[in-house]
Amino acid sequence: MVAEGETIWDKLENIDRRILYLLIWIVVLPPLISPIGLPISISPSTVAYYEAIEKLPPGSMVVVSFDFGLSALGELYPIAVATFHHLFSRPVKFAIIATWNEGPIVAKMIIDKLNPEQTYHKVYGEDWIFLGWAPGGEQAMAALGRDIWGTITKDYIYKKPVSQYPIMQHLKSAKDVDILISLETGTPGADEWVRQWWEPYHVPMLVACIGVMAPTVAPYVQAGQCLGLLPGLRAGAEYEKLLGRPELATAAADAISTSHILVLAFVIIGNIGYFAKRRRRME
Amino acid sequence: MAWYKRVEIPIIITAICALIQILPYYFTLGASVEDFQATFVNWQMVVGTGATFVGAIAILQLHIPRIMKRRPQWEYSTALVAMFVIMLIFGLPIRELGLGLDNSVFEFLYGNVLTPLSSTMYSIIAFFIASAAYRAFRARSLEATILLVAGSLLLLKNAPIGTAVWPGFGTIGDWLFNVPNMSTQRAILIGGALGAIVLGVRAMTGYERGYLRGGGE
Predict the structure, then answer these.
(1) pLDDT in tens, chain A (283 residues)
(2) Residues 78-117, chain B: which have Cβ within 8 Å of A?
(3) Cβ–Cβ of A261/B133 closer than 8 Å?
(4) ipTM of the predicted structure?
(5) What is the 3-class SS of chain A, one letter each residue?
C-alpha cells in the first residue's frame, strides 16, 4: 500500500528494514540447509596459504595462534577446522596457543571434533601440543617470542610442565618456528605478531581473518611478511576446495552469494527510487 | 605536597619503563639488559591479568546497586550477576572439587549459552550491514557514486556467483583490494604509527598526562 502523498518511488527509496531482514532470512536459510553448489574460483592468496603449508619440509615447526573468541566462530571455525585438517595431514609439528582468553575453548572444540590421535595417528606431545592461553596481549607475544617455556609453563590439556614433552625440545622461542598461523579477528592479532615475531625474528605468517579485517592485513601480504591470507568464509570455501574437503565454508558460500545478490538488488532499487524522485523534482 | 605525591614520579617511572622496552628493540645492549626487559614484560602480563579482576569488580559495582534499587532494566542486571557468579564458581580451577574449565556445568553453559549468544550477536551484523548498504549506497555525489560502484564490485567479487557469472569481477575486485585499498591502508598504518610515536614521546617527557588521573597537575 502506498500512503497518501507517498509515491511508489518514495516506497522504493525507504523500504521498511523489517522487510529487508525477513528477505535476508529467506535467501540465506535455504542454501545453508541444502547447498546449491555454485562454482567457486580460487584466489591467489588462498593458493599461497595452501601452498605455504603444503610445501613445509617434514619436521617443520608451526605455531597456530587463536586470536579470536566465540563471536567469530561463524566465519573462522570452518577455516580453523580446514587448517587443522591440513596440518594434521602433513608431516609437520605444531603448537597451539591463544592470545584471546576464549581461544583455548574454541581450539578445544576443533581438536575434539578432529580427534587427531584416531584420525591422523598424531601423538600429543610429540607431533602437536596445546599450550593454552597466554594472557597479556602484545606483551605475551613478545614474551613468547623470547621464551616460550618461561611464558607458558604447563600445557593446556594435561597441565604438565612443557619441558617434559618431546615436541617442546624443538620449540623454545620464536627462533625455532618456521611459520606462524594467526586465526584472528582484531587486537591482538596480525599487527602485533608482525611487530613481535616478524620484525625481531623474521617468522613468516599465514593469516585467516574475518572478512572485515582483510583490508588491514593486506599490506603485510604485499610486504612479504604474511605469506597467505584467507579473508572470511568465501576464502574458507576456496581453501576447502583446494584441500578436497568441502565442509562448512563451502555450504555457507552459497548463502554468501544469495545474500550479496539481495543486497545488490536492494541497492539498485534504492537508487532507482532516488533517481526517479530527483527527475520528478527537476521536471 | 608530600614528595611521593609529586606528578614527576609516575612520569619518570613511565619513561624508564618505556625506555627499557624500546632500547633493546633497536640496539644490542647485552644479555643482562635483555633479561631485565624479559622480566619487565612478565610484570606487564601479571599486571594486565590483574586488571581482569578490576573489570569484574567494576561490573558488579555497576549492576548490584541497579538490582538493589530496582532501576530500569534491573532484570537484565540480575541475569548478568547470576551468570557471573555461576560461571565464576564452576570455572574456579580447583580440580579436587571437580571445578574448572572441564566442569560439566561450565562446559554446558559455555557451549550452549555463551557460544550461540556470541555467534548470534556477531551474525546480526549481517542484517544491519544489508540495511545500511541499502540506505547508504546512493549515487548522490561523485564520491558517493565511487563508493557505490566500488562496493558493488567488491560484493560481486566476494560472492561466488559473481565470479562464476563473469570472472572479470574477481580481477576488478582484486585490483580494488590490492591497489586503492592497500595504499589507503598503508597511509592509515603509517599515520597511526607516527601518532603512536608522538604519543609515546609526549608520555615519556611528561607532556601527555591523560593517564595521570585525567591529567591533573
Answers:
(1) 556 667 888 888 889 999 999 999 999 999 989 888 888 989 999 999 999 999 999 999 999 999 999 889 989 999 999 999 999 999 999 999 999 988 998 999 999 999 999 999 999 999 999 999 998 899 899 999 999 999 999 999 999 999 999 999 999 999 999 999 999 998 999 999 999 999 999 999 999 999 999 999 999 998 999 999 999 999 999 999 999 999 999 989 999 999 999 999 999 999 999 999 888 888 8
(2) 101, 110-111, 114-115
(3) no
(4) 0.84
(5) CCCCCCCHHHHHHCCCHHHHHHHHHHHHHHHHHCCCCCCCCCCHHHHHHHHHHHCCCCCCEEEEEEECCHHHHHHHHHHHHHHHHHHHHCCCEEEEEECCCCHHHHHHHHHHHHCHHHHCCCCECCCEEEEEECCCCHHHHHHHHHCHHHHCCECCCCCCEHHHCHHHHHCCCHHHCCEEEEEECCCCCHHHHHHHHHHHHCCCEEEEECHHHHHHHHHHHHCCCEEEEEEHHHHHHHHHHHHCCCCHHHHHHHHHHHHHHHHHHHHHHHHHHHHHHHHHHHC
Residue B53: list chain A partners with CB under 8 A.
none
Q: A138 to chain B, minimum CA–CA distance in Å? A: 9
Using CB atoms, which residue from A139, A150, A216 is nearest to B185?
A216
Which chain B residues contact residue A136 at CB under 8 A? 41, 44-45, 48-49
With a cut of 60, say whether residue B109 has pLDDT above it. Answer: yes
Confirm or reject contact between A157 and chain B (CB < 8 A): no
- Portion 153-212 of B in contact with A at CB < 8 A: 155-156, 158-164, 167, 170, 174, 177-178, 181-182, 185-186, 189
Among the four given CATH numbers 3.30.565.10, 3.40.50.1860, 3.30.1130.10, 3.40.50.10160, the one describing domain A44-246? 3.40.50.10160
